């Protein structure tokens, strides 16, 4: 095991140290990736890097910290459950996208109405 400091992990995954500590506090980063050295400093296993990159991808895909924590707490998810979670998130994104499109059309119509208005 190659142990790394939090600053090393921060640089490698392009996240602030404060964010990593927040994820630790919330229980998002499994303790299997962390150990305390003789000075009580955190040391991280190199395997945390792919884990953190996956975490960042999930966040970018629209999953909340709460949702990710829930997924991680389920330990071994069956492939069927994984697909169901992904499909649910895709449906949420599609609904949000429709709402955003509706709002955009409303604003475009409002702009057009304002431009056509002569006072």
TrEMBL record:
Residues 79-106 form a coiled coil. It comes from the Bacteria. One of its GO terms (molecular function) is DNA binding. Gene3D superfamilies: 1.10.1660.10. InterPro entries: DNA-bd_dom_put_sf, MerR-type_HTH_dom, MerR_fam. Residues 1-74 form the HTH merR-type domain. It holds the Pfam family MerR_1. The keyword Transcription regulation applies. The keyword Transcription regulation applies. CDD domains: HTH_MerR-like. This is DNA-binding transcriptional MerR regulator.
């Amino acid at each position: 095991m190659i142990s790394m400091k939090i600053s090393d992990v921060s640089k490698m995954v392009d996240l602030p140290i404060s964010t990593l500590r927040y994820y630790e506090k919330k229980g998002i980063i499994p303790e299997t990736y962390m150990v305390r050295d003789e000075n009580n400093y955190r040391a991280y296993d190199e395997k945390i890097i792919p884990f953190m990159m996956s975490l960042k991808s999930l966040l970018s895909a629209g999953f909340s910290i709460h949702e990710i924590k829930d997924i991680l707490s389920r330990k071994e998810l069956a492939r069927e459950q994984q697909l169901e979670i992904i499909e649910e998130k895709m449906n949420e994104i599609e609904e949000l996208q429709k709402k955003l499109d509706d709002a955009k059309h409303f604003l475009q119509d409002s702009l057009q109405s304002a431009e056509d208005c002569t006072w």
